[in-house]
Amino acid sequence: EAGVAQSPRYKIIEKRQSVAFWCNPISGHATLYWYQQILGQGPKLLIQFQNNGVVDDSQLPKDRFSAERLKGVDSTLKIQPAKLEDSAVYLCASSFLDPLIQYFGAGTRLSVL
Amino acid sequence: AQSVTQLDSQVPVFEEAPVELRCNYSSSVSVYLFWYVQYPNQGLQLLLKYLSGSTLVKGINGFEAEFNKSQTSFHLRKPSVHISDTAEYFCAVSPKAAGNKLTFGGGTRVLVKP
Questions:
Q1: How many CA atoms lie within 13 A of B13 on its CB side?
Q2: pLDDT tens across A61-72, in order?
Q3: Which 60-89 residues of chain B touch chain A by CB within 8 A?
Q4: Chain-chain contact of B102 with A40 (C-beta, under 8 angstroms)
């Protein structure tokens, strides 16, 4: 079984630029999560999708962050414009029938200069 | 709201020695408890979880954790570590009413020395 795929693995941009991350969950997993992991901290949930609908985006900075999962499969997270404090690893996770077990991708490491 | 405190940011340990990683949590509601491991350049992987029942939970790779409700703790232990256990370990909680809403601690980096 293929795992959660994320790309790119690394991205370096300058502040005020835009960036997008892609995630392809495990096949058949209806629930998809995006987390932000700042260096030295644990992951923080940004947004949760159930199929193509948003379940929870209470911690998503909506003035600059957006996410979509149009066909209920893969997902894109965008930051526009980026700030220095957005430097972090962005993790995608998915779950199937048991919501207590989330499978994580390797993440995208973003550096904003 | 929930919060998780991992008391040690780094734990150096010699190979074949025991290790204990401490985790304390705060919550106004009943929670499920988890330990995840993150190997270098990889995503998080579930080590074990506590849902109910026996307070001693066994996980993968020889790890176990004990839930202590009175002390609101969920410490992780392994009696004998290997070099391959070098990783970062995260404790997390989730409200029972919303089982997939994880709140993570800051992580403990374990460095196993030969």
A1: 24
A2: 999 999 999 888
A3: none
A4: no
